[in-house]
Specification:
mainly beta; 3 domains; 10-stranded mixed sheet; 8-stranded antiparallel sheet; 4 helices; about 40% strand
Length: about 475
């Protein structure tokens, strides 16, 4: 909750005066008047007056006991406004006239001049001057004032209006939900790897893996465009020693793990391995052994050209961070890890699935598995994958827009949820996201955006600034597979 305090004080001065006659009491002498002259831009806020809660108010000259303002004011405003003049009275003098009060005890007579225009000039005399709108939409005004403060307060007074106001928020329901995903066991240099498969560049292959693991592998056609320097290799066996591999033979073998940070990629190029007839079948434990056997003519490769997203969950000497707080709530912190449980007995892992918007405003859920550079990866509690930066110049990554100010919400930066430029089923869908940041040029006028066309429209109208995210001046790519957490 944000407390907005409007300090209603222009300046207090105490002078000693000598009363000469009743006439002199009606006019301020040279020691009881102060020149005011300024030009200032104001942003309105909720009118704190009782009965005005749905209105907007900009106080130009604030009330101060024992003083009166007179002079002239010229203004221009973003909306049609009314001029407000307050008059210092006591409750016994109200007698049915329009009044304005914050607490019901201190009353001001209210003059409301309804110009119904966005600019004008006005001569005033009163205890306070302001601009008012009967609507709830904030307005911006620039005002020039030339006049005097007159009066002789007998004590120094600091009068405050304290208005507790809820900051605008966008709190989606089911913002964070659990997503339990099957794990597979693989091998790297003779040691165990546990990994998941979320996406594939070939539709039939994605369907085949989906059936085998009984959990949807999403079709991401543009993964086929990922360059070699952003891939590692996964060797999948079509025959040989029986086992728990994807085709019922030995476990898959990887060419790197997150421990080889400069080489590791969650994106794997699929190489199908077949033993030639008459060869003695063994269990391979490293990529080098497989390549040597191929060069020796014992096996043959089918370099499929298929790319799968196969993030490693557990690897030799490491694993993805598991959250300390296992409870998944709508307002849970975004950082601190993306996993609540790694269950090796059941061979599954439970991620936090985050809610956002697809390009057409439909709900999407995504998990986070790895990122580059290392700073954001550490903040989110995911694997660092520097090779993902190689996607910046290629079509293997698509745009995901996050908000750095505006409406408070459940996005990773504390504002509204993000918007993706592609969703599941789209031809340009990819789990690899190039992050863009949206900043409202005037955060007071921020609104909820839900679609890619919203972004384009507000950007064209110069209401938002969109820039590519470059934390620590580095390319920023995040592996955020879109999933159905309720399957």
């Amino acid at each position: 909750m944000k407390k907005i305090i409007a300090i209603l004080i222009i300046g207090i001065f105490v002078t000693s005066i000598v009363s000469i006659s009743s006439l002199s009491d009606q006019f301020a002498d040279a020691g009881s008047r102060k020149k005011i002259h300024f030009t200032q831009t104001f942003t309105s806020s909720q009118d704190p007056g009782q009965g005005h809660e749905n209105h907007q108010l900009s106080l130009i000259l604030s009330p101060n006991e024992g003083t009166i303002y007179d002079g002239s004011m010229t203004f221009t405003s973003s909306e049609n406004v009314q001029i407000v003049v307050l008059h210092e009275i006591n409750s016994n003098d109200a007698k049915g006239q329009p009044t304005w009060s914050i607490d019901g005890d201190t009353l001001y007579g209210l003059s409301l001049i309804d110009l119904q225009q966005k600019s004008g000039s006005f001569e005033f005399t009163g205890a306070a001057i302001g601009l008012h709108s009967p609507n709830s939409k904030p307005f911006i005004s620039t005002v020039s004032v030339d006049g005097w403060i007159r009066g002789q307060p007998t004590e120094i007074i600091m009068q405050k209006i304290e208005l507790e106001k809820e900051e605008p928020k966008s709190l989606l329901s089911r913002t964070n939900v659990p997503a339990t995903i099957p794990m597979h066991q693989g091998i790297y240099d003779g040691e165990k790897i546990l990994y998941i498969i979320t996406d594939g560049s070939d539709e039939e292959y994605a369907k085949t893996i989906s059936e085998k693991q009984e959990w949807n592998v999403e079709f991401a056609p543009i993964l086929a465009n990922v360059p070699e320097d952003a891939l590692q290799k996964i060797f999948i066996f079509k025959n040989g020693v029986k086992g728990e591999g994807l085709y019922g033979f030995q476990n898959e073998v990887f060419s790197s793990t997150p421990e080889q940070e400069s080489e590791y990629s969650a994106l794997s190029s699929v190489i199908e391995v077949t033993w030639k007839t008459g060869q003695k079948e063994i269990i391979f434990e490293s990529a080098n052994d497989i390549i040597t056997a191929k060069e020796g003519g014992r096996i043959e490769f089918n370099e499929t050209g298929i790319v799968v997203n196969s993030p490693h969950i557990v690897w030799p000497n490491g694993q993805m961070q598991v959250r300390d707080d296992k409870e998944i709530t709508d307002d849970m912190p975004y950082g601190g890890g993306q996993i609540t449980e790694i269950n090796e007995q059941e061979m599954n892992v439970t991620f936090v699935a985050h809610r956002g918007w697809g390009p057409d405003g439909r709900t999407i859920y995504y998990i986070v598995t790895d990122a580059t550079p290392s700073g954001p990866a550490e903040m989110m509690g995911v694997t660092s994958s520097p090779t993902s930066a190689n996607l910046i110049a290629h079509a293997g990554a698509v745009d995901l827009f996050q908000f750095k100010n505006g409406i408070k919400g459940t996005g990773p930066l504390g504002f509204q949820a993000g918007i993706a430029s592609a969703a599941l089923g789209d031809e340009n869908y990819s789990p690899m996201w190039r992050i863009y940041l949206i900043e409202w040029n005037d955060s007071e006028n921020a609104k909820i955006l839900e679609t890619k066309s919203d972004i384009d429209s507000f950007r064209t109208n110069d209401q938002i600034t969109v820039s590519i995210a470059r934390p620590t001046n580095s390319d920023h790519i995040v592996n955020c597979p879109f999933i159905d957490p309720f399957q």
